[in-house]
Write a structure and sequence with these properties.
alpha+beta, five-stranded mixed beta sheet, about 170 residues
C-alpha cells in the first residue's frame, strides 16, 4: 500500500512554498514562487499555481500554513497582516478548485507542529518555537498539546507609548 501523500503550502509575505510530503516528513516534490502581495486575486492565482506545480494523483489532502488570524474550523482567513486577505474562505476556495480535503493553520503553529512531531522537538512534551520572516510569530506546545493564540509575539505590546503595530 502506498504511503499517503499531502501537499503542504507555506504562505508567506514574500514567498509561497509548496511541497508533497509523506507521513514521516519525507519530501517528494517542492516548489517556491514569489508572493504577489498586491491583491487577493493575484495571491490566489499564485497559491493555485503553487498547488498545481506539485499536485499528483496520489495526493490525498492539502494543508495551508498562513500568517493570519483564522477560523480553523471553517478554514476561513479572518485577517492577514502581510497578505491581502480579509474574511476569505481559503479552505472553501481550495476544496472547490482541487476537490481535496483542505486544512488551514496559522503558519507559526504549523511550523511548531512539524518541529514537534518530525524535527528537533520530537519526543518532547514541551516546545517553544519562534518564526522570523516578513513577520514574527511563534508556537507553544505544553504537555503534548499545541496552544493556539498564545504565541502571537508579532502583536505584543512592548511599549504602550511606542509606535503602533502595522497589523
Amino acid at each position: 500500500m502506498a504511503t499517503p501523500l499531502v501537499i503542504g503550502v507555506d504562505v508567506g509575505g514574500t514567498k509561497i512554498r509548496s511541497g508533497v510530503v509523506d507521513r514521516e516528513g519525507g519530501v517528494h516534490a517542492r516548489q517556491e514562487v514569489e508572493s504577489p502581495g498586491d491583491s487577493e486575486e493575484d495571491v490566489l492565482r499564485a497559491l493555485d499555481a503553487a498547488v498545481e506545480a506539485v499536485l499528483e494523483e496520489a495526493v490525498e489532502a492539502i494543508g495551508f500554513g498562513i500568517p493570519a488570524n483564522l477560523d480553523r474550523r471553517s478554514g476561513r482567513v479572518l485577517r492577514a497582516t502581510n497578505l491581502p486577505f480579509d474574511d476569505f474562505d481559503l479552505a472553501g476556495h481550495a476544496r472547490g478548485r482541487f476537490g481535496l480535503p483542505v486544512g488551514v493553520e496559522n503558519d507559526a503553529n504549523a511550523a511548531t507542529l512539524a518541529e514537534w512531531k518530525l524535527g528537533a522537538g520530537r519526543g518532547t512534551s514541551n516546545l517553544v518555537l519562534l518564526t522570523l520572516g516578513t513577520g514574527v510569530g511563534g508556537g507553544v506546545v505544553l504537555e503534548d498539546r499545541l496552544y493556539r493564540g498564545w504565541a502571537e509575539v508579532g502583536h505584543m505590546v512592548i511599549s504602550a507609548h511606542g509606535p503602533p503595530c502595522q497589523g
